[in-house]
């Protein structure tokens, strides 16, 4: 994480070394190489299979060598999936993901700022401790009371029912990552803002926010992917087809058309496509976001 | 300024976690009235042979997936931290599983491993043509494999980042002393990665408690109860058998197991500089 989070100090120390030719250049690491290529094969074969099969006709799928490219490629599977209302599920997933990460990241940022700037207050210290505890507990265990609360709020079977707990579940890690980052902002910058007569609120948005941008992106990616791919909350808190998000739609679609493997795999491709596009655009950003807080 | 985050977290995190303890002393079918029921749910859960079984299955998934993932991620992380020319290309493809949802992965493998229409049958490979999800041991093996397929890239990424931060001068000094690659790995790389190993292991272990979606879609706990882990047991008791009291008791057990493991691993880590990382778990 430090590559993004503690960017300043450590990268200055490590960056120069990193740029030099690595160990592998001189002496090949045979064992690592073999494992690398073997694992790559294990990763690639299923993905390749998903892709080619999604372009096969159903009869073609049963007849042909499964690893051979389609004899007569067809887009019918994709048409079928899109006609099965996947556009709606896609929009639902976008609403849920954006609707959850934007507020989650904003409130986490504000909390992180408060915790760092007034870290000595016992009140904020205990708030921080509470968030940290949330990291050690599998929050999924709280799903039954969450279900009860959502029912009592009359939110059952709405997208908001997924959004609200998603925000809460995203907060602990976001606060941790963001507060680590804000802590590295030089104190002098805050002091000079104060000397200039800026309020804490102004300092928050005009100084801390722009400086924290890399960490904000990191946290958004990490939580965004988790929410986009989330399954348990939509499964438990929604019911009608209108409120389905993509992972849940995948599952029901597969339940309905399990014999039509090419169509099922086309649905897998379609639901992953947006993430794949993001991956192609900003691979580094995405990968560093994925390990938010964990890669030392 | 911390208030909005606190409110959200209390409403949908703290209150539910306390609420689940309360609910475990009630009887509720998920729709009707919630009635106090004393220790009924706990008695039912604790005397049910399904509980030790679910705990055992959870433990097996945890231990095996850890044992498979750790050495492989470590090896791959060290390898990818190097500077081979083709590494970039390799890395692009390597991390794709991270982008897929558990549901998508489970659905893919379900089709891929189908004994009649899957990869094995299509290629006429008897070794691959087995009733993968219909036989207890095989199904467990499949879950371990698919979990590894999904998460090894993530842990590889963590190790890769950590290996790159090991000062190169350490290796240069060892090289001057005539140390070989294997020796350098055990004398320098491994000790330097100590905290990373603990962080990654903690993530694997605590994370394995909530492999819900993958197992749910892949086997639904089957065949029979062979892959019914705690999280799945909670879901089935609560949302399929409508026994929310019992499901809440299982949830409490899940929380206790998670906390115990996190604390245990933290102790192994020995506090100090690892504390800040472990807090990230």
Compressed to H and E, one letter per element, the order of chain B equals HEEHHHHHHHHHHHHH
Q: How are the strands of the largest sheet of chain B arranged?
A: 1-2
DSSP strand content of chain A: under 5%
Note poorly predicted spans of chain B: 271-281
CATH superfamily caption of the largest domain in chain A: MetI-like
Count of spatially separate domains of chain A = 2
CATH fold-level label of the largest domain in chain A = MetI-like fold
What descriptors fit this protein?
heterodimer; A: 296 residues; mainly alpha; MetI-like fold; 2 domains; 15 helices; 0% strand; globular; B: 281 residues; two-stranded antiparallel ribbon; 14 helices; 2 strands; 1% strand; disordered C terminus
Outline the structure in words:
The complex is a heterodimer of chains A (296) and B (281). Chain A is mainly alpha-helical. Chain A folds into 2 domains: 28-74, no CATH class; 85-290, MetI-like fold (Orthogonal Bundle), CATH 1.10.3720. Chain A contains 15 helices and no strands. Chain A has helices at 7-19, 23-26, 30-54, 58-63, 76-117, 122-136, 143-152, 159-183, 187-195, 200-211, 213-228, 232-237, 246-256, 261-281, 283-290. The termini of chain A are close together. By secondary structure, chain B is mainly alpha-helical. Chain B has one domain (37-98, 144-278): MetI-like fold (Orthogonal Bundle), CATH 1.10.3720.10. Chain B is 70% helix and 1% strand. Chain B has a two-stranded antiparallel ribbon with strand order 1-2. In chain B, a hairpin with a 7-residue loop joins β1 (26-27) and β2. The relative contact order of chain B is 0.14. Chains A and B meet through α1, α2, α3, α5 and α6 of A and α1, α3, α4, α5 and α6 of B.
């Amino acid at each position: 994480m430090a590559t993004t989070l503690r960017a300043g100090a450590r990268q200055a120390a490590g960056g120069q070394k990193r740029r030099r030719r690595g160990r592998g250049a001189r002496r090949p690491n045979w064992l690592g190489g073999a494992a690398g290529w073997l694992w790559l094969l294990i990763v690639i074969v299923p993905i390749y299979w998903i892709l080619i099969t999604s372009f096969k006709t159903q009869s073609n799928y049963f007849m042909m060598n499964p690893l051979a490219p389609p004899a007569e490629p067809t887009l019918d599977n994709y048409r079928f999936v899109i006609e099965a209302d996947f556009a709606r599920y896609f929009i639902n997933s976008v609403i849920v993901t954006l609707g959850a990460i934007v507020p989650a990241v904003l409130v986490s940022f504000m909390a992180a700022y408060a915790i760092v700037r007034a870290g000595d207050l016992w009140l904020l210290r205990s708030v921080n401790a509470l968030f940290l505890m949330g990291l050690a507990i599998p929050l999924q265990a709280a799903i039954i009371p969450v279900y009860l609360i959502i029912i009592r709020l009359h939110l059952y079977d709405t997208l908001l029912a997924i959004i609200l707990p998603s925000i809460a579940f995203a907060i602990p890690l976001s606060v941790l990552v963001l507060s680590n980052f804000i802590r590295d902002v030089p104190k002098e910058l805050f002091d000079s803002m104060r000397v200039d007569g800026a309020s804490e609120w102004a300092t928050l948005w005009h100084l801390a926010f722009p400086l924290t941008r890399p960490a904000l992106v990191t946290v958004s990616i990490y939580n965004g992917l988790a929410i986009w791919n989330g399954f348990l909350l939509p499964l438990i808190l929604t019911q009608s087809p209108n409120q389905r998000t993509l992972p849940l739609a995948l599952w029901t679609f597969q339940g309905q058309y399990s014999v039509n493997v090419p169509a099922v795999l086309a649905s897998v491709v379609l639901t992953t496509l947006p993430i794949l596009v993001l991956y192609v655009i900003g691979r580094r950003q995405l990968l560093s976001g994925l390990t938010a807080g964990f890669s030392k | 300024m911390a208030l909005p985050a606190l409110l959200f977290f209390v409403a949908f995190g703290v209150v539910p976690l306390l609420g689940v303890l309360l609910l475990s002393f009630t009887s509720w079918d998920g729709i009707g009235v919630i009635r106090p029921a004393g220790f009924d749910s706990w008695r039912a859960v604790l005397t049910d042979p399904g509980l030790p079984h679910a705990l055992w299955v959870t433990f097996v998934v945890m231990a095996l997936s850890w044992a498979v993932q750790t050495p492989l991620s470590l090896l791959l992380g060290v390898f990818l931290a190097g500077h081979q020319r083709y590494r970039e290309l390799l890395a692009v493809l390597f991390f794709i599983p991270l982008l897929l949802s558990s549901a998508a992965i489970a659905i893919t493998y379900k089709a891929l491993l189908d004994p009649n229409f899957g990869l094995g049958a299509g290629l006429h490979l008897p070794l691959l043509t087995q009733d993968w999800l219909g036989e207890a041991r095989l199904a467990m093996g499949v879950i371990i494999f698919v979990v590894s397929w999904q998460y090894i890239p993530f842990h590889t990424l963590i190790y890769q980042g950590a290996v790159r931060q090991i000062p190169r001068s350490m290796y240069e000094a060892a090289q001057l002393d005539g140390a070989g690659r294997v020796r350098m790995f055990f004398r320098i790389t491994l000790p330097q990665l100590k905290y990373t190993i603990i962080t990654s292991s903690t993530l694997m272990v605590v994370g394995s408690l909530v492999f819900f979606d993958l197992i749910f879609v892949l086997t639904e706990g089957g065949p029979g109860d062979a892959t019914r882990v705690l999280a799945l047991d909670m879901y089935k008791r609560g949302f399929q058998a409508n026994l929310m009291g019992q499901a809440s008791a299982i949830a409490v057990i899940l929380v206790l197991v998670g906390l115990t493991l996190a604390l245990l691993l933290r102790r192994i880590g020995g506090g100090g500089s690892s504390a800040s990382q472990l807090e990230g778990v």
